[in-house]
Amino acid sequence: MNGLTIDMEQQAPFSWQLEQWQRLNAQVKTDQLAHAFLLSGETGIGKRLFAFEFARLLLCLEPSGSRPCGKCQNCSLGKNCQHPDLVIIEPEEIGKSIKIDQIRELADFVNKTSHSGGNRVVIVNEAHELNVNSANALLKTLEEPGSDTYILLISNLPASLPATIRSRCQRIQFPMPTINQATTWLQSRLGSADIAAALSNSHGRPLLALHAAEQGVVENRQIFLTRFAEALGQPAGLQGLVALAVKIGEKEVLGYLATTSSILIKYLLTNSRPLEADSLIEDLKLRTGISGLATVSLVRRLLVFNGEIQKARRQLQGSTNPNSQLIMESLLWQWSRLVQTAV
Predict the structure, then answer these.
(1) Phi, psi values for residue 287, rounded to 5°
(2) Rounded to an integer, what distance in angstroms lies between the CA atom of residue 48 and that of residue 312?
(3) Which of 170, 173, 97 is nearest to 136 (CA)?
(4) Which CATH class is domain 216-336?
(5) Is the overall model pTM greater than 0.90, yes or no?
(6) Alpha carbon of 168 to those of 36, 153, 200, 260: distances in Å?
(7) Among residues 33, 57, 129, 153, which one has the fewest Cβ atoms lying within 10 Å of its Cβ?
(8) Which one, of 312, 291, 184, 303, lies nearest residue 242 by Cα?
(9) Quick check: do 15-173 and 216-336 share a fold?
């Protein structure tokens, strides 16, 4: 597994997923459930947990209404995603493709008899990471899935999937939760923590916000971006900021910068505060605004800076052993000169 840890205590469906849950349950009750689904939507909103909970429902021997009973042998086995009639496929490493050998194992699974005599469920997480060969192999399984076999594909980039695969799946779209829904859910788990900052850091995605808050990401972001704002137009103090970036982690910091610059560009273009903007964004907007540069010029420079952030992220993800400290020094030096009248 990769990405967010599966915590079945954060039990789906969440309040912003009830419509999708009811839609699938209606198909179950009328015995008209499709054999393949594509669950799509932003990362960090609970699609994967939704898929696991629906898999538990399909495997449950004695479902209670529209939910698994939680007591039968199948529910006990499925609680930790260890049921023999459940297969989970996803990239073996972050950023890697789903291999054809993984899909071949799936073909063997669907051709076997169910261990419990009931349904079999396949979950393909990050389905957009299928390569050409594995996608073609999966297509064969989608065309002939076998009886009582259900395949759930999960993706935040559904357009990246081949049209042949998309056409064989029923699409279930998951919208972003409202700020109220996300805040209420996080309050029940974080108590008095700075939920607004956590949601801002995660672009309103509650599960990512929870993960960030638990890992101290929010505090690190606040400390770094405060120093980052102070460095605008002040190249003399960059060494301390570079050292802080190295301490937090260059990849993490580049994520902060990518998100922050995107929100700031949106703010400047619309002249209206985005929902995801917090006090740190407000401070940055104020600091760039008093530079005397025209908004068009600021946006143009921020777009160039954002492009450099993406370039730096690609360099750090490469296999050429890049000098991460040198990359950060160069990027932060460009930031410090952003509002100078001649750059």
Answers:
(1) -65, -40
(2) 30
(3) 97
(4) mainly alpha
(5) no
(6) 7, 11, 36, 38
(7) 33
(8) 312
(9) no
